[in-house]
Amino acid sequence: MDVGIGLPAAVAGTDFTTIPAWATSAEDAGFSSLAVLDRIAYRNADPLLCLAAAAGATSRIGLTTAVLLAPLRHKGALLAKQAATLNALSGGRFTLGLGVGGRADDFEAAGVEQSKRGRIMDQMLEEADAVWRGDTPIGPVSRPRVLLGGTAPAAFARAAKWGEGWVSGGGGPVMFAANAEQARKAWADAGREGEPRLVALHYFALGDDAEQIARSYILDYYAFLGPFAERVADGAATDPGRIKGVVRAFEDAGCDELLLYPCRGDVAQVALLAEALR
Predict the structure, then answer these.
(1) CB of 202 closer than 8 Å to CB of 233
(2) In a 3-state reduction of DSSP, which class is residue 27?
């Protein structure tokens, strides 16, 4: 199983000028990918711009949105152009993880009807696929690897139709294993060959007051989930032993790549996580 690390683009107080330093440190430490979250009505940086900065500072490490909330971007052709540009700029290192989103404040800020997000996503995927195939005058023609997130039947069907695999949220290895089976079934039902790539994310914090910092961040970021946010916060890995246990559990659950997202923004988290994984 590959292990990637998230950028602190959604961590309050992060100095975003340190994103290139995070990227180079993660590449030097041997992480498989740099990943980034997406919100509109939050204090985060734009995910595609963060990954563009990371791409310019690195040459080998993968670049992943896990996930970008596609319906908030309105038009599939524009998203396809942005994604293709980032993929071309990075030499084919970009993985576009997409989800429909579920926070009402994001949709209000973007001027998008939340009730239509599934239909918007389907239309955007149609438009994006045409761009990446070169069937439109829009370029560059550079198709990124695509992953689809979500746990509704329609989400698994989208992953099987449009993507190279499925990406889970922050629900932990047990929930991942159950949903991964649904992703595999949808893949087989769609007549796809081989197996879908299965990616998961999990949260970590290391150093002084790690547990308190992780809980504070996660409960704020996932406040809209109500009691489920507590489950995500309880699962955060806040010491080397818990990190090793989380990695083993996801690997045993059939995960192909685990993306460990930081709950604090200092660059030292990269080295601390690398040491914890040794």
Answers:
(1) no
(2) helix
Instruction: Report the alpha-carbon distance of residue 168 to residue 223 in Å, rounded.
Output: 18
The Cα 203–Cα 250 span in angstroms is: 13
Q: In this predicted model, what pLDDT tens digit does every residue of 57-72 receive, in sequence order? A: 999 999 999 999 999 9
How far the first Cα of the chain sits from its last, in Å, is 14
Share of the chain above pLDDT 70, in %: 100
240 close to 191: Cβ distance less than 8 angstroms = no
- Predicted confidence at residue 74, as pLDDT, reads 83
Q: How far apart are CA 253 and CA 168, in angstroms?
A: 12
Tokens linked to 200: 């998961």
Q: Are 100 and 72 in contact (CB under 8 A)?
A: no
Distance (Å, whole) CA 257 – CA 247: 10
Give dist(CA 113, CA 210) in Å, integer: 38
pLDDT in tens, 120-174: 999 999 999 999 999 999 999 999 999 999 999 999 999 999 999 999 998 899 9
Entry pTM: 0.97
One DSSP character per residue, 68-134 reads EEGGGG--HHHHHHHHHHHHHHTTS-EEEEEE----HHHHHHHT--GGGHHHHHHHHHHHHHHHHHT
In the chain, the amino acid numbered 244 is K
Pull the structure tokens for residue 248: 């083993």
**Averaged pLDDT score across all residues of the chain:** 97
